[in-house]
Amino acid sequence: KPIFILNGPNLNLLGKREPEIYGHETLDDLKAVCEAKAKTFGLGVDFRQSNHEGDLITWIQEARENASGLIVNAGALTHTSVGLLDALLAVPVPSLEVHLSNVFAREPFRQHSYISKGVEGVICGLGPKGYELAIEALAAMIGEGGK
Ligand code: DQA
Question: Which has the closest alpha carbon to 97: 108, 80, 84?
Fold first, then answer.
């Protein structure tokens, strides 16, 4: 089974949106980086993005059956969505939360995540490298038989 890498609202604008915060790499670039990294662990990647909370919830539910692990950058929904938390709490495979920016060095409203309670770990502030590190960590967790 592949790992799911799910990206939330506005991440389709990566590379164009506030590049001083989020960098110049596009979402397609990020996808390529993730696929290459996962391949080194023999893992496939199902990389998706949506601006809609319901899509992300449906995809997290799908991961229960169809993924060996899950990486989520929920964008702004990180700071608002109990629905995403509940979906993550129902996922039996290991899951990690990633943010490109260091949310703790930004506005106070970005310093609380509703979804952290539903994941095994959080990586933030390392840009695309954070996704690569999350893939590495997830590969090790999957090797250990998941949560
Ligand atoms: C983000 C951080 C969020 O606060 C923001 O709303 C985003 C992106 C990040 O990757 O740094 O859309 O999740």
Answer: 84
